[in-house]
Amino acid sequence: MLSVRRCSRSGCTELAVATLTYVYADSTAVVGPLATQAEPHSYDLCTGHAHRLTAPRGWEVVRFEGEFVAPRAVHDDLTALAEAVREGRCEPAEPNAPSRRPHLRVLPGSAD
Predict the structure, then answer these.
(1) I need a labelling partner for 89 at 20 to 30 A (CA). Which of 3, 31, 42, 48 fits?
(2) Is 24 helix (H, G, I), strand (E, B) or coil?
(3) Cα separation of 62 and 39, whole Å?
């Protein structure tokens, strides 16, 4: 399942559809489609903030020309497993087994 990312602007609760990245060496702000993963030195923006963004004096804004689209939720077994691992939601295989922290276990299954 896709985790929901919100606009990084203070007080905004809209869904993020674009990513803002600053290129300090070129004095440029780049607004493009939403990055696949949140990055520590970039900012997620909603449609309104992505279109209205202005840069400091002397800086250039490079903006994606297409339409910003919210990412679709993709749900399959591999995605669900990856999300469970990230969020630490995996339970022990045996109900009474002691567990210091959630972990994954491989269980024998039938091969199709």
Answers:
(1) 42
(2) helix
(3) 19
